[in-house]
From TrEMBL:
Keywords from the named record: Transferase
UniProt-listed InterPro entries: Acyl_CoA_acyltransferase, GNAT_dom, MshD_Acetyltransferase
GO molecular function terms listed in the Swiss-Prot or TrEMBL record: acyltransferase activity, transferring groups other than amino-acyl groups
Positions of the N-acetyltransferase domain: 13-153, 158-294
PANTHER family: L-AMINO ACID N-ACETYLTRANSFERASE (PTHR43617), UPF0039 PROTEIN SLL0451 (PTHR43617:SF2)
Hydrolase keyword on record: no
Record's keyword annotation contains Transferase: yes
Protein name: GCN5 family acetyltransferase
Pfam family, one: Acetyltransf_1
Length: 294
């Protein structure tokens, strides 16, 4: 806190796009500010600051607030970080950075901005974004499973194998066909996931890539999280998703994981029926997703 400092007069502050020289100051703010939201690691945030996909509020030489966007995919970007110094009122800071961030987005032909935060740790931010024109679009819901039962193994004509580095281009193309733009994962996410090699498999039908799935391991392997399961829309309904989900549960059993988790959109009822059939149950956790049309 800043008990002996007068409130900052924002009329004297500069709101501007970020630049390379801001990386250290933005990094410090994201680590130290009590009002901060960060949904990405430094490997994503720092390039965004360097490339001007962020805005800062600067007073003299001090950065007092910062907001960062993801790389756009099909005219869609996500708010990946926002931090406000204790010297500023969060309401005033967000009211200043939100229009500047939208200006940057429009310059990059972005038409939709999205935000997904934790209702507990980030509850300070949601009402401020709603005042800035964001609206609640959906929730991400959480499912979990505490056994290794597999009700069916899916299509046995499907060949499932570990992913290889050379599969990246096809996986990226498949992901774009499978999901709405705001849910597509780009190379910055999928390339490291492929390189990680813990659980990333592809499904092939008649020699063609038909789906893929990958998971991450946590707490020494005691928890495995299904990050993605994707099936080409042209071959859905042929047991490929069941096969991929069965492979994931089998992997968790072999690893000795005691808890299996996954997330999906509240409106994706088809996927939720599959997960419930496999023994996954909703935890009650919900992550609100907000959208801003530009």
């Amino acid at each position: 806190m800043w008990p002996f400092r007068k409130p900052v007069d924002l009329s004297a502050a500069l709101v501007r796009p970020s630049q390379l020289a801001d990386v250290t100051a933005v990094s410090h703010l994201l680590n130290a500010a009590s009002r901060r939201f960060a949904a990405a690691s430094g490997s994503e945030l720092y390039p965004a600051v360097e490339e001007g996909r962020a805005v800062v509020i600067q007073l003299e030489r001090e950065v007092l607030a910062a907001a960062v966007l993801s790389r756009p995919i099909h005219q869609v970007a996500w708010l990946r970080a926002l931090a406000v110094s204790e010297r500023l009122q969060p309401r005033e800071a967000v009211a200043r950075v939100a229009p500047a961030l939208e200006q940057i987005a429009r310059q990059q032909a972005i038409t939709h901005l999205y935000y997904a935060g934790d209702d507990q740790s980030d509850q300070w931010l949601r009402p401020l974004l709603e005042q800035a024109g964001y609206y609640h679009q959906t929730d991400v819901v959480v499912y979990e499973k505490r056994d290794w039962e597999i009700p069916a193994n899916g299509n046995r004509d499907v060949q499932v194998r570990p992913v290889q580095a050379v599969d990246l281009a096809e996986v990226l193309q498949l992901d774009m066909r499978c999901f709405e733009p705001q849910w597509v994962k780009d190379e910055s996410i999928l390339a490291p996931a492929i390189a990680d090699g813990s659980f990333f498999v592809v499904a092939e039908l008649n020699g063609q890539l038909a789906g893929y799935s990958y998971a991450t391991s946590h707490f020494g392997g005691r928890l495995v999280h299904l990050v993605r399961i994707a099936v080409d829309p042209d071959v859905r309904g042929r047991g490929i998703g069941v096969r991929l989900l069965a492979e994931f549960v089998a992997y968790a059993a072999e690893a000795g994981a005691g808890l299996l988790t996954l997330n999906t959109q509240a409106y994706n009822h088809h996927a939720q029926r599959l997960y419930r059939w496999f023994g996954f149950a909703p935890t009650g956790e919900r992550q609100p997703v907000l959208c801003r049309w530009l």
